[in-house]
């Protein structure tokens, strides 16, 4: 099974971490922004990461890919079957993909991707506005709803935890992780998730790629 994209994308990283937690062998085929690889375009016609291929089956979008993998490999269960728990898991996945990445992506793109990868100036005003106005309510929300167990659904690891942990790797790369004084549960959650083998290896590779100055 092939995943097209770059692990620095929170969507690609989510799929890779999910596969690792499920014990599914996924091959990452590094595919950059604007790539014209025919296999990638077949899997992702609009050029969005990640693309995915399993034999003659190709599809894009991280949540669609994970839905496919979960159906193929239902054990261990990372998308709960109990209706309320499943609904919450899907909400947290959507929350991470749209609300979290929508805000945090502005910071990461303008402070890391634009200057370090694309070699163009980033929009610092946009990054600053996201950092000071968009991200704080997100952190407050997560701190408020995160259960004492440190897991978002059913007091165990699910897709919800993987999805929410992924954008925080990008925040790690710009040195903007939350502080324990204000968000203690969230900080403990991030540290726990990023230390898991499913995340730790990719984090280290990304640090080497972006350079220590990005951290």
Describe this structure in words.
The protein has 215 residues and is of the alpha+beta class. It folds into two domains: 2-72, Glutaredoxin (3-Layer(aba) Sandwich); 83-214, Glutathione S-transferase Yfyf (Class Pi), Chain A, domain 2. The chain is 60% helix and 7% strand. The chain is built from eight helices and four strands. It has helices at 10-22, 38-43, 62-72, 83-118, 124-145, 159-173, 184-195, 197-210, and strands spanning 2-5, 27-30, 51-54, 57-60. A four-stranded mixed β-sheet has the order 2-1-3-4. Strand 3 and strand 4 (57-60) form a beta hairpin. Helix 1 (10-22) crosses helix 6. The two termini are 31 Å apart. The mean pLDDT is 94.
Summarize the structure.
With 215 residues, this protein is of the alpha+beta class. It has helices at 10-22, 38-43, 62-72, 83-118, 124-145, 159-173, 184-195, 197-210, and strands at 2-5, 27-30, 51-54, 57-60. Helix 1 (10-22) links the parallel strand 1 and strand 2 (27-30).
Give the helices and strands, then pairings:
Elements: E1 2-5, H1 10-22, E2 27-30, H2 38-43, E3 51-54, E4 57-60, H3 62-72, H4 83-118, H5 124-145, H6 159-173, H7 184-195, H8 197-210
Number of domains: 2
Number of helices: 8
CATH fold node name of the largest domain: Glutathione S-transferase Yfyf (Class Pi), Chain A, domain 2
Shape designation? globular
Largest sheet: 4 strands, mixed
Number of distinct beta strands? 4
Structural class designation: alpha+beta
Indicate the radius of gyration in whole angstroms.
Answer: 17 Å
Whole-Å distance between the termini?
31 Å
- CATH structural architecture of the largest domain: Up-down Bundle
């Amino acid at each position: 099974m092939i995943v097209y994209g770059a692990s620095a994308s929170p969507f690609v990283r989510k799929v890779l971490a999910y596969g690792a937690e499920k014990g599914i062998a996924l091959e990452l085929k590094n595919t950059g922004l604007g790539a014209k690889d025919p296999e990638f375009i077949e899997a992702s016609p609009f050029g969005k990461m990640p693309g995915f291929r399993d034999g003659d089956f190709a599809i894009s979008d991280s949540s669609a890919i994970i839905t496919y993998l979960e159906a193929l490999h239902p054990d261990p269960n990372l998308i709960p079957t109990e209706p309320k728990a499943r609904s919450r898991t899907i909400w947290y996945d959507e929350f991470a993909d749209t609300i979290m990445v929508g805000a945090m992506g502005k910071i990461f793109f303008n402070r890391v991707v634009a200057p370090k990868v694309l070699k163009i100036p980033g929009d610092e005003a946009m990054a600053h506005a996201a950092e000071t106005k968009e991200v704080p309510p997100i952190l407050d929300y997560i701190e408020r709803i995160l259960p004492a167990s440190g897991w978002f659904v059913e007091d165990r690891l699910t897709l919800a935890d993987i999805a929410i942990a992924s954008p925080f790797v990008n925040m790690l790369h710009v040195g903007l992780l939350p502080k324990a004084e204000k968000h203690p549960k969230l900080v403990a959650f991030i540290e726990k998730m990023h230390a898991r083998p499913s995340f730790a290896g990719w984090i280290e590779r990304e640090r080497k790629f972006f350079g220590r100055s990005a951290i």
